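SAMPLE LOG
Freezer: B-3
Tube label: C17
Construct: single chain, 202 aa
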Amino acid sequence: YRGQRPPEDILRDIPRLNKLLASKGIKAPVIFTEWGYHTSDKGINEDTQAAYVVRSFLIASSVRMPFSIWYNWQELGDDSNDAQQKYGLIRDGSVDASDDDTKKPAFFALKQLNTLLAGYRYDKTLHNSNGMFCIRFKKGSDVAYAAWTTTKNSAPYQLALPKGQWRTKEIMGNANIIAVNDIHPATLQLQSMPLIVMPVSN
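STRUCTURE (predicted):
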């Protein structure tokens, strides 16, 4: 668990852990067996939790994690002062999985990420500096990008894309079409919630 620190914070620890395992002669993949963020009064707000759950799984992909387990599916109670009760993607008392009113923004964000990148696999980290991240995924000959910033304010980012029409999809928002050519490169306005970019043909 990272407390209230963003999920990218784990990237500092992975190399150290791999080095420790190697020094002990242990050949085993690193697995995130449990991590999450609570939305109690002492935690983060629900919109930040939504951004963090998406970024957590993107970060896990970028270090080629075999699998990652999010804690947890459903809140354990409704006491906003108790952090342990407020980790869930679904609110306490939710018994009908089809009832959207019981789901937190993090539920919809993770569902959208899985829908957009279904079948895609991590290919390469294109940018990881100054709070800007861009990861490329591939599915056969198809390509998709996930880009975001860890800064509090939105930030411009220029992504080198082949010429053509590209769709930019906000995880919790609108989809837009951008035309990329020699005169108009792809300049994205990044937010805390990752932006997914893929060809219009996909």
